[in-house]
Amino acid sequence: MKISLKRKLIFSFIVVILSSTIISGIISNYFINKKFNDYLISEQDTKIQNIISILQDSIKVNNDIRYFNKDEITRYAENQELYIEIKDLAKNTIYSSGNSHFTRRDNMRRMMNSMGKNSPMMDAKKYIEKEYPLKYNNSVIGYATIGYYSTSYFSLASINFLSTLNNSLIISTLIALLLGLVVSIIISKELSKPLVNITAATNKMRQGNLEIRLEEKGNTREISDLSKSVNYLADTLKNQEMLRKRLTSDMAHELRTPLTTLKTHVEAFMDGVWEVNSDRLQIFYEEIERLNSMVDDLYKLSKLEELNVNLNLSKLDISQELRKIVETYTPIYEKDGHLLLADIEDNIDILVDKDKFKQIIYNLLSNALKYLNSHGKVELSLHREDENLSIIIKDNGIGISKEDLPFIFERFFRSDVSRNKSTGGSGIGLTITKSFVEAHGGKISVSSLLGEGTCFKIILPIRN
C-alpha cells in the first residue's frame, strides 16, 4: 500500500519531534535529578558540619564533653531529620537524640506518595551513620555519631521542585508534539500541493494536452525549478508535435509531386497519347532522382537519430582551409551576381575532422546562397576569441521570421518562405551542421531579421 507524501512527511515530523523530545527529556531529567541530588547531599553534609561545629564550640567554652545545650541539639536533630549520639573516649553514651522523629518523617513520605508527589530517590530509603571525632586542644576527647536516612534530605520544597520539573518536562513534550504536528501539516501541505499539481499536469500532458502550464509560485527553489522544467518539457513536446505534423505534411507533399508526374506520364504512354522519346525519359529520370534524393535524406536522418559522430581528428590550418573553400565558392556566387567576402585571420591551427568541417562550411555557404536577394552579399570571417576560434557567416538575404528562428536546427524544418522556393531543400542540412559542430565540442548560434539577413556564428575550441 502506497502512502501519500503528505502523510509520510507528517508521520516523519511527528516521529522525529517525539523521539527528540523524549530523548532530550530523559537526558535532561537524569542530569538535573543527579545534580539536584548532589546538591541536597552537599546540603546534608553542611548540616552535619554545623552540628559538629556547635559541639566543638561547646567543648571550647566548657572544657568538657559532658556540658552542652542538649535541648538545642535535640531540636536541631528533629528539624534536620538526624540521629545524634555523643560518646566519651570509652565509647560510653553521654547523649542520644532518639529516633522518634524518623517515624514522623515516614508518615510525611507516605502522605506525599498518596498525593502523587513521590520521587524515585525518596523511595530509595537507606540508613546511613557516620562517626566524627570531637577534639579539644587537638586531642580527641569523644565521638559524635550522626545517622540519617538517605531520604531525610528531601524536604517538601525539594520534592515539590522535582515534581514541578517532571511535570514541566511532560507538558513541554506535549506542547512540542502539538506544535510539531501543526508545523508538519503546514510544511507537508506546502511541499505536497505543488507536487500534486505537477503530477496532475504531467498526466494531462501524457493524455495529449500540451497546452497546460504550471504557475511557478512558492518560495521553494527546487519546486520552482521542477515547475520550470515541466513547462520547458511541455514547450518542447508541443514544438516536436508541431514539427512532426509539419514533417508529415511536407513529406506527403514532396512525395506526391514526383509520383503524380510519373503516374501521369506512364498513363500517357499507356494510352498512346505520348511516344517514348529522350526528353520525356529525361523527365522520368529527374523525378526519380528527386525521389532518390528524398530517400537519401531519410537515410541520413536515420543515421542522425543514432548519431554518435566518430571524428577523424587531425591538425589543420583552418585559415588556409577556409580560403580554399572561399575560392571554390566565389565563382558560384559571382555566376548569380552575388558577392562573397572573406576576413580570415592567419595561422590558426586546431585539431578537427577535415571532411566534417568542410561540410559544415559548405552547408552554411550553400544555405546562404539559396536565400540571397538580387546582388546579394555574404561575409565570412575567422578570428581568435581567447581559447576558441570564431567563424561568422553573415548574409543580407531574405532572413528568418522570429517565429521560425527557434526551430531552424530541427530536422526537416523549413520556414514558410523556404517552402515556397524551389531551392527549399529537405530541411536537415542545418541539423547535420549543428550535430557536427557539437561533436567537435563547439557551439553554433543564429540571429536573423526577416527581410534583412541572417548571421550564423560557430565557436570551436582550439585544441592542438
Structure description:
- InterPro entries: HAMP_dom (IPR003660), HATPase_C_sf (IPR036890), HATPase_dom (IPR003594), His_kinase_dom (IPR005467), HisK_dim/P_dom (IPR003661), HisK_dim/P_sf (IPR036097), HssS/ArlS-like (IPR050398), Sig_transdc_His_kin-like_C (IPR004358).
- There is one protein chain.
- With 464 residues, the protein is of the alpha+beta class.
- Among the domains are: 171 residues, Beta-Lactamase (2-Layer Sandwich); 153 residues, Heat Shock Protein 90, CATH 3.30.565.10.
- Helix 1 packs antiparallel against helix 5 and helix 6 runs antiparallel to helix 7.
- 20% of the residues are buried.
- SSE string, helices as H and strands as E: HHEEHHEEHHHEHEEHEEHHEE
Overall pLDDT metric = 79
Molecular shape: rod-shaped
Q: Helices and strands: which structural class?
A: alpha+beta
* Top-tier CATH class of one domain: Alpha Beta
Write down how many β-strands occur, each being a DSSP E stretch of 2 or more residues.
Answer: 11
* CATH fold description of one domain: Beta-Lactamase
- State which percent range the strand residues make up: 15-25%
Which blocks of ≥5 consecutive residues have pLDDT under 50? Answer: 115-124, 417-424
CATH architecture of one domain: 2-Layer Sandwich
**Count of helix runs:** 11
Integer-rounded radius of gyration:
50 Å
- Helix content range: 55-70%
Q: What distance separates the N and C termini?
A: 60 Å
Q: In what order do the strands lie side by side in the largest sheet?
A: 6-8-9-11-10
Describe the largest sheet: 5 strands, mixed
